[in-house]
Amino acid sequence: MPKLISREEALAQIRAERGGEPCLMCGIAARRIGAVHALYEDDDFLVFLPRYVRRWGQVCVMPYAHVRSFGEMSAASFGAMSSLGHRVAMTLERAQRPKRVYLASTGSSAGELVNSSEHMHLHAIPLYMPDDKPSDIFSWRAGVWVGADEEWADLLASYRAAWAEAT
What we know:
Blueprint: E1 3-5, H1 7-18, H2 24-29, E2 37-41, E3 45-49, E4 59-63, H3 75-96, E5 100-104, E6 122-127, H4 134-137, E7 144-146, H5 149-165
Antiparallel strand pairs: 1-7, 2-3, 3-4, 4-6, 5-6
Helix pairs in contact: 3-5
């Protein structure tokens, strides 16, 4: 069963894993920060399961190119990222049966932070409770979920099966 850990514990673990990596997302893409549970990747994008999540089953889509704003991203590249986000949302709906899926381009406007990055990325977050609110989903105040290797492997296997159907 995934485990809920405090925001402070998660931040300490990320600091230790990240070391001096200047960009969190670039470090993840290069496999220099922790295990990467990749659902899909091509020459331009990585779709993966973040290891610290507000809702179990969350997925992240990010370009390999280090872009920090919509203005640095071509319309074609943003369209490709959005298309992957749509496919991820359909995958979550098939595999997890949430009440809803949030798609959000979050990231940091305050520079690189321990748990966020300026690097453009898109989160797909499954919502299971009818009273889930954005203020709860996008904050780590109540802690974050982490999983053991076998839990990530099981989740990834269910997503891969649903991904194949979500075309």
